[in-house]
Amino acid sequence: MTFRKLKRFLQTPFSQKLLIGEAVMLLAFSKVCILFFPLKKIIPYLGNLNCQLTDLPTTNLAIIATNIRNAILSASSNVPWRSVCLDQALCCMLMLRRRKVSHSLCLGLKKDDMHQQLLAHAWIQLGEEILIGGECSRSFILIANFSTSYLKRA
Question: I need a labelling partner for 130 at 20 to 30 A (CA). Which of 69, 87, 101, 111 fits?
């Protein structure tokens, strides 16, 4: 199985390999930040609190965002630690910021009635599209979103 993954990685274009490498480094950085810093220290760097973005990305930015998502999903499934939704969302946020793509980092909660516990989830949105963490985010109640916009207003 590992040989097959290595062969597939070697066949990917160089630009995608660079994105995957960047994603691995930022996933590690995100994991360290989450483990060693309280959330209240991280929040000031996330963006504008509860500022809803309605900006739709251009076609070029949507392609960039899709490439970033694919790199993060590939990297997160191959790192030696467990990469959870918040790790992936922070990594995606940093990669989108670097490329000046407007986005929102969303945090949500839901109650698990079966186990009597509160569950948390993080995801990234571009306009109305969920880029990372979208598979189950609709079942969570949005409690905060942090938006970063790069569009110039007239």
Answer: 111
